[in-house]
Amino acid sequence: MLNRFPENKNIDEIKLKIDSINSLYSTNIYDTLNVAKHIQSLNLDDALINGDISIIPKIATGHGIASLKSETGKEINFYAFATKYCSWHNPEEFPFFDSYIEKLLIAYREFGFYNFRNVELKQYERFKTILMSFRAYYGLSDLSLKEIDKFLLLYAKDLFKNK
After folding, report:
1. Nearest-CA neighbor of 145 among 99, 79, 84?
2. What pLDDT does residue 126 have?
């Protein structure tokens, strides 16, 4: 789909990409139109091409969508979605975060591949460093980040499905 819609200028194309990611990964974006408008306003194509990770928090926040569960109207941080959206555009610069991958990295930390605090996984620069350390520690440098993302997600879903 990205070969057909690589840019983020047309609201319908952006919304289609959001709907696809939302369906594939259950990212729980319930207001896809407003997220699409937000993404369109960011003019982020150069950042995606250049692997500029500072775009992650800009996508994840600033959209004005409040949690339906929050009485305070606190804005939702769409961190996992933002990483997946960027990964779809540039998979070798933007590994994606997922709660299953988070659980797996925390479990593997016990084997000594890297010392980190759980909260660091929600800081994209740290998350990427941790993931690259996992890749190096386990001799997976021949695999692309996209291949590692797929492996970790499928393995983690299988491992944690009954827990």
Report:
1. 84
2. 98
Task: Identify the domain containing residue 82 by its residue range.
Answer: 11-88
Q: Report the first-to-last Cα separation within the chain, whole angstroms.
A: 34
3-state DSSP helix/strand/coil % of the chain, to nearest 5:
60, 0, 40
Cα 39 from Cα 33, distance rounded (Å): 10
At 88-120, the pLDDT tens digits run: 999 999 999 999 999 999 999 999 999 999 999
Chosen domain end from 43, 67, 88: 88
Q: Which residues of the chain fall below pLDDT 50?
A: none
If one counts the domains in the chain, the total is 2
Query: Residue 60 domain-assigned?
Result: yes
Question: Do both 33 and 80 map to the same domain?
Answer: yes
pTM value surpassing 0.90: yes
Per-residue b or e along 114-136, where b marks 16 or more CB atoms closer than 10 Å to that residue's CB: bebeeebbebbeebbebbbebbe
